Amino acid sequence: MTILRPSARRGFLRRNGSQTIVVALLVILMVVGSLVSSRFSTLANFMNILEQSVTLAIVSLGQTLAVLTGGIDLSVGSLISLASVLLSGITNGDPGMVVPAIAIVLGLGILVGLLNAAAVIWLKVHPLIVTLGTGAALQGLTLLYTMGPAGKMPLGFDFWAFGRVLGLPVGAIITVVLFAGTALFLRYTPLGRYIYAVGDDSTGAQLMGLPRAKVLLFVYGFSGFTAALTAVFLVSRFGVGQPYTGANFTLTSITPVVVGGTLLAGGRGGVIGTLLGVYLVSLLNNVLNYMDISSHYQLIVQGLIVIIAVSVYVEKKRKL
Amino acid sequence: MSDVNMAGVPAAGEALRNVLRRYALHLSLLAMIVVSTLVSPSFLSGGNVSNMLLQAAPLGMVVIGQVFVILVRGLDLSVASIMATAAVVATSFSGQDKDAALIFALALGIGLATGLVNGLLVAKRNVSPFLATLATMIVLQGMRSAWTQGAPSGNVPPFFRILGSGSIYGVPYNLIITAVLALVFWVILSKSTFGRKIYITGGNPVTARLLGINADRVTIICYVISGGLAALAGLILSGFVGIVDNWVGRGFEIDSIVAAVMGGVALSGGRGTIGGGLIGAAILVVVFNAVLQLGLPIQLQIIIKGVVIVVAAAFYVRRKAG
Q1: How do the domains of chain B map onto residue ranges?
Q2: CB atoms A132 and B121 under 8 Å
Q3: Which stretch, A164-173, A302-311, B113-122, B133-142, has highest mean pLDDT?
Q4: What is the distance in angstroms between the Cα of A52 and the nearest Cα belonging to chain B?
Q5: Per-residue pLDDT reduced to its tens digit, B179-210
Q6: Which of A44, A121, A131, B82 would suit a FRET pair with A74, their CA atoms being 20 to 30 Å apart?
């Protein structure tokens, strides 16, 4: 049921409806925020929001690509946990080991992603089940490696989480560059276009001779890479890797994706929407904090946002 | 796949293979029990068996609901959250039996209402089941911790303690309840017109509409069933655990999906049975228990669960193709 209806896609609002809504919500939140507290609309607070949203942004970037192909990556949370404990465990305070350790965990992330893709392609199992399975296996491996915080990072490694370049948080700059690069890649490279084609109609894409296997290997490999990179920033933030540090990211990484207008059924959406979604979630939590609303209610609000978002952007086709 | 019956291929081999295929699930459960018993003789001891049955009962209850939802091409991630909410309800009153009926009604109401919201979002708003049930899961979680301010306290009434952990002639009450529920829902699914409608709706929603089936209503009812069963399972599990935190039932959403998939319930909808799902649940409980009995690191449970779900899903994909 993937009949393309060009007529329905015309018009700026039609094409960018979700982004427009998110931007409008961001503006409304800023107005509310500045009414609530004088400390809200300060440069320091905005830098703070940017800084805190780095990890969510990076993991959601990979998730977006997986969702665009009509899949999902539920292994990111456990992968982040495993990469975190390995990074700080291997480094163990030795500055000389930082670079090799980062290389190892990034490589591991890509490897896990390729394994996910391989299972999707050759075992013909739905990505949801595959990544649920690898997620469980990775969490088990993480806990076999350590049951508590492992190793430590050398002094100065927190630069990646708290450092500033030209007054801007380092992580936020890297985030924006990554998102912009991915957006250009999706729009202007053949592989980028294939990602949409596979998501729109997987069988059709294959019949047309598009390299579905290559697309999926790339997408899940990329998602594994971004999850591992998220772990690097998390470890930089906390100074140490913990075995459950990524647990929440599996599901929270999906919120910005859908809020940003990427359909879970695949084929439509993009990473810019996701970045806006990340900032919406972060800004919302920030405003709720200033309103002295406890984290319990923040959860309710987050759930309601997902409900509203998904029922506003009615999915054209239904899959898992 | 390559089961072309060429001349000269002994028919007996073919028949054996068919039997193996059809009963693969039952045989693997049997094999696991045999292996576990050989390796660890205490596996089949009365104490351990009744322990496993006690654990299997709440999971089985949730699996029944999950089967209904998966049959209509869905997925229910909110079951664990419903369970925990029911458990919090169980301790929110005096802790005496006089409140049992109230607790029961309230918890069941929350479960059914959550299922209704899930069903409406999926059927009427075309939201993907994953997201719809994920969202209600988060909302319930927030409401629960707002209600308890993050620290639930209070006691589970003795009535639920008995339901959750008591037994008669060695048969746990909760297992009897699960068995009765399984029977009732098996009749609904396999013997009633409504059950046929579920299979048709899940198999092909377009056909269902052409046949005049109200596919939306069928879908919604499946989610309501799942929500209600999850609430019951939550009450019973709270009686088993005795104490309540915000996370009673944690992991049940994944385990119930794993059990259903292992039991041959197809995520693409329209295929699968309650019996299959329950055997899947039994396999899961046996495997977890075997890990403990063998003195292996408990982390292996999670790893095995992860591997098993992928392998099982791949097996069924292959069988469908064959």
Answers
A1: 44-249
A2: no
A3: B113-122
A4: 21
A5: 999 999 999 999 999 999 999 999 988 889 89
A6: B82
Tell me if A273 sits within 8 A of A267, measured CB to CB: no
Residues of A (175-234) whose Cβ lies below 8 Å from B? none
Specify the DSSP class assigned to residue A95: G
- Chains A and B form CB pairs within 8 A to the count of 148
For chain A, the domain total comes to 1
Q: Is A146 on the interface with B (CB under 8 A)?
A: no
Average pLDDT over chain B reads 87
CA–CA separation, B243 and B154 (whole Å): 8
Please check whether residue A307 touches B, CB under 8 A. yes
CB-based contact B136 A298, cutoff 8 Å? no
Query: What beta strand segments (E) does chain A contain?
Result: 164-165, 168-169
Distance CA A259, CA A247 (A): 21
Residues belonging to chain A: 320
Domain assignment present for residue A26? The answer is no
Q: Do A315 and B128 touch (CB under 8 A)?
A: yes
Which two tokens mark B25? 């699930």
Write B92-97 long-range contacts (CB < 8 A, 24+).
Answer: B92/B147, B92/B154, B93/B154, B93/B157, B94/B157, B95/B154, B95/B155, B95/B156, B95/B157, B96/B157, B96/B158, B97/B157, B97/B158, B97/B159
Going from the C-alpha of A17 to that of each of A6, A22, A84, A254, B145, the distances in angstroms are 16, 9, 37, 19, 34
A319 strand-pairing partners: none
Q: Do A130 and B310 touch (CB under 8 A)?
A: yes
Q: Which residues pair with A169 in a beta bridge?
A: A164
Whether residue A16 lies inside any domain: the answer is no
Asked if residue A193 is part of any domain, the answer here is: yes
The tokens of A109 are what? 């992330």
Q: Please report whether residue A1 resides in a domain.
A: no
Between B142, B303, B309, which is nearest A129 by CB? B309
What is the pTM (predicted TM-score) of this model?
Answer: 0.87
A135 has a chain B CB within 8 A of its CB: yes
Instruction: With beta carbons under 8 A apart, name residues in chain B contacting A128.
Output: 75, 130, 267
Place of tokens 């690191």: B297
Q: Which residue of A has its CA nearest to B69?
A: A320
Instruction: Give the structural domain span for A304.
Output: 50-312
Give the phi and the psi of residue B73 in degrees, each rounded to 5.
65, 30
Cα dist from B128 to A27, A258, A302, A310, B77, whole Å: 28, 11, 17, 8, 12
Which residue is closest to A70 within chain B, CA to CA? B128
Name the residue facing B317 among A125, A140, A254 (closest C-beta).
A125
Can you tell me the distance from the alpha carbon of A130 to that of B314, in angstroms, rounded to the nearest whole number?
9
| Whether the complex's predicted ipTM surpasses the cut of 0.90 | no
